[in-house]
Amino acid sequence: MAMVIENRIWDAAETLSRQNLERLQLDRLRECVARVEHVPFYQEAFAKTGVTPGNIKSLDDLRRLPFTTKADLRDHYPLGFLAVPREKVARYHGSSGTTGKPTFVAYTQNDLGLWADLCARFLVAGGLRPEHTVHIAFGYGLFTGGFGLHYGVERVGAAILPAASGNTPRQIMLLEDMQSDVLVCTPSYALNIAEVAREQGVDPTSLSLKFAHFGGEPWTEDMRIQIERELGLFAFNNYGLSEVIGPGVSGECAARAGMHIQEDHFIVECIDPDTLEPVGPYEYGELVFTAITKEAMPIIRYRTRDIAALDVCPCECGRTTVRMSRVKGRTDDMLIIRGANVFPSQIEEALLRVEGAAPHYLIEIDRPEALDEVTVKVEVISEIFSDRMSEMQAVTGIRVKVDLVAPQSLERSVGKAKRVMDRRKLGDG
Ligand code: DLL
After folding, report:
1. 332 burial via Cβ count (<10 Å: 0-12, 13-18, 19+)
2. Does the N terminus or the C terminus of the chain have fewer Cβ atoms within 10 A?
3. Which residue in 302, 243, 297, 245 sits closest to 268, CA to CA?
4. Cα of 386 to ligand 1 centre, how many Å?
5. Rounded to the nearest whole angstrom, what is the distance from the C-alpha of residue 215 to the centroid of ligand 1?
6. By alpha-carbon position, which residue is closest to atom 30 of ligand 1?
7. Bridge partners of 336?
8. Please, are residues 152 and 118 in contact by the beta-carbon 8 Å criterion?
9. What is the pLDDT of residue 394?
């Protein structure tokens, strides 16, 4: 089935020439520095290096600005990074995670308008049209997924069914009865929906879904193929994080060859996480974003811990923005197994290439003696699946024990899937 989507561009800013884009970025960077000058963390850092809005002369001067990390946000909990008086704040959200304190982020009314526009851009790039009905199965709450996509869809003028996450049998009933055209959730939840539909005797490909916009967690190309087949739709990837704005930082166009970064609002850098030096285009590194237009909580050089590569080639869709690859993993998710570095996504990739493996897996790591032991629990969907797991070793370079477990035995997610259980940390401190 070929995908036919008329190429529609929401905002002319997506097609600016490099020169005009960079001019705009520089102006906005200066304004941004002026807005955060009285945020204590930045005030202190700027004082040390003598940065003022006036002496930002080129985009290269970005490198004179400090990085901001999650730890910095925690140290200034809850609102130490607020750059406007509290009465100007229109909304708060928080980073994901159910334990401990969240990291709060804040939006002014203008920030909310911008956020809706940025989500509208990638939704339209991925086929959303005003006549569509969109089923949103993201959590509505502190998590940015539900509200971010909600206002984006509204901006495009399509109808929203704010199903929120959970109660999967009910989601299927709603999808069937309301004949939604577009599904919005995490990719792992989409698989969960397909599975529960089949259990209920509903063929997931018979639903009216045409497109899906998935984000919020890493997934692989093999997973995309599987979801598209199971649900009979075209799936698009979109990326974002609450500290930067939420969803809307980047998203795929119909070419599906990387996610266009909304560079008129976010300056992206890709760095080596150890040396902090920039890496070249197409090389994997940690993404760093500066949100140059946000009012309530602009963030300078935020270290995302997400590992991806940047593609600077022009895209066939006409957008001129840099594209980011899929996120290969997070620096804090990278597993070091007997000295070798492995991302859970590499294990997923190897798994999904083996016929008969279900896309439900859990990676368990133990250290019974001195050496790490990795077990991947995989659900099997047919007898074909044997011990043909040599591919796993070829892709990851590590030896893993594969435990075939019964269908339905691993926990399903309704939001971000938990793929790794690292038991080594318990005893090792
Ligand atoms: O997950 C924002 C979001 C919601 C994006 C819905 C897209 C759709 P946080 O809860 O702050 O915000 O988590 C951000 O999730 O640093 C990545 O590690 C991961 N992530 C988000 N989107 C993708 C994606 C939202 N498309 C963290 N691919 C980020 C891979 C993703 N990882």
Report:
1. exposed
2. C
3. 302
4. 34
5. 6
6. 218
7. 341
8. yes
9. 63
Cβ proximity of 109 and 2 under 8 Å: no
Cα–ligand 1 centroid distance for 390 (angstroms): 31
pLDDT over 80 (residue 4) = no
Q: What confidence tier does 429 reach under pLDDT thresholds 50, 70, 90?
A: very low
Mapped onto helix, strand or coil, the DSSP state of residue 40 is helix
Angle, helices 144-156/109-125, rounded to nearest 10 degrees: 70
Measuring from atom 16 of ligand 1, which residue has the nearest CA? 241
| Ligand 1 centre distance from Cα of residue 238 (Å) | 8
Q: Is the pLDDT of residue 54 over 60?
A: yes
Nearest CA to ligand 1 atom 31: 217
Task: Give the CATH class of 1-331.
Answer: alpha beta
Would you state the pLDDT for residue 97?
Answer: 62
3-class secondary structure, 126: coil
The amino acid at residue 110 is N
- Ligand 1 centre to CA of 217 (Å) is 5
> Given this chain, do its domains 1-331 and 335-428 carry the same CATH topology?
no
The residue whose CB lies within 8 Å of the most ligand 1 atoms, and thus the one to mutate among 241, 244, 304, is 241
Annotated domain spans of the chain: 1-331, 335-428
Predicted model pTM: 0.94
- Give the residue whose CA is nearest to atom 10 of ligand 1: 96
416 CB-near residues (< 8 Å, 6+ apart):
96, 186, 188, 216, 217
Q: For residue range 283-311, what is the model confidence (pLDDT) as tens digits? A: 999 999 999 999 999 999 999 999 999 99
Considering Cα of 142, then 144, then 149, then 154, what sign does the dihedral take?
positive
Q: What is the CATH number of domain 335-428?
A: 3.30.300.30
What would you report as the CA-atom Rg of the chain, rounded to the nearest whole angstrom?
A: 22
The answer, yes or no, to whether residue 393 has pLDDT greater than 90, is: no
Who lines ligand 1 at CB under 6 A?
95-96, 143-145, 215-218, 237-242, 246-247, 304, 306, 327, 330
Overall average pLDDT of the 65-94 stretch: 97
Position of tokens 């077990």? Answer: 375
Cβ-count burial 232-248 (b if 16+ within 10 Å, e if not)? bbbbbbbbbbbbbbbbb
The answer, yes or no, to whether residue 1 has pLDDT greater than 80, is no
d(CA 306, CA 292): 20
Residue with CA closest to ligand 1 atom 27: 241
Atom of ligand 1 nearest to the CA of 218: 30
Q: At residue 130, does pLDDT exceed 80?
A: yes
Q: How far is the CA of 51 from the centre of ligand 1 (A)?
A: 31
